[in-house]
Amino acid sequence: MVQKAKILLVDDRPENLLALEAILSALDQTLVRASSGEEALKALLTDDFAVILLDVQMPGMDGFETAAHIKRRERTRDIPIIFLTAINHGPHHTFRGYAAGAVDYISKPFDPWVLRAKVSVFVELYMKNCKLREQAALLRLQLEGDGHAGGEHEKEPAGLLAELSARLAAVEEQAEALSKQLDDESADAAAVATAAHLERKLTGLRRALDALEPGTGGAAGVLPAQG
């Protein structure tokens, strides 16, 4: 069963949260509500999220302050933030949103289809990264196990490497298709940059797998760089 991505919706008005849930329900992901910046930060302590939709105008801790806290935490600093605002104070207000770490800044009322499309890109990137981490973890476990394996297991690593290579090829194909889609749709620079970062990770993992193939002279201790 494919695990669903979590999307954090932050707004102090229940009717706005209800509207966001109606728009994003078609993505079939897990939608998590937060009615304040403090509540959002609490949710981020325990759960991983693909993207955060953050209202700017909130009593107490506003969206800018909430984003600043999110970006200061190592666990959450890389989560994409899309700011939503009912008012537009001009370029300076928009610039403040991007300076706070937002990947996008959308004024209400917004086009539901556009918002859903933007969120879906970040959900897809998140899922690709999750698959990549799973492949790396499988490889690491196998390499650690090989250090204790006896003669009866000598043929197992080759079979596992072949399986990992096939799985990685599938992820590489999906990542390539996603990159082409982003190019065709002239997507946000942040989404394109995230896709490029994912492709660099995939390239590193592919090189590590190739180095482990028999006859290549690769060392069993070679692992793809994380980051």
Automatic annotation (TrEMBL):
SMART domains noted in UniProt: REC
Residue ranges constituting the Response regulatory domain according to the UniProt record: 6-123
Residue numbers bearing the 4-aspartylphosphate modification: D55
Pfam family, one: Response_reg
Protein's organism: Streptomyces rubiginosohelvolus
PROSITE patterns in the record: RESPONSE_REGULATORY (PS50110)
Coiled coil: 161-188
UniProt xrefs under PANTHER family: RESPONSE REGULATORY DOMAIN-CONTAINING PROTEIN (PTHR44591:SF3), STRESS RESPONSE REGULATOR PROTEIN 1 (PTHR44591)
Xref: SUPFAM superfamilies: CheY-like
Domain of life: Bacteria
Listed name of the protein: Two-component system response regulator
Keyword Acyltransferase annotated: no
Keywords: Coiled coil, Phosphoprotein
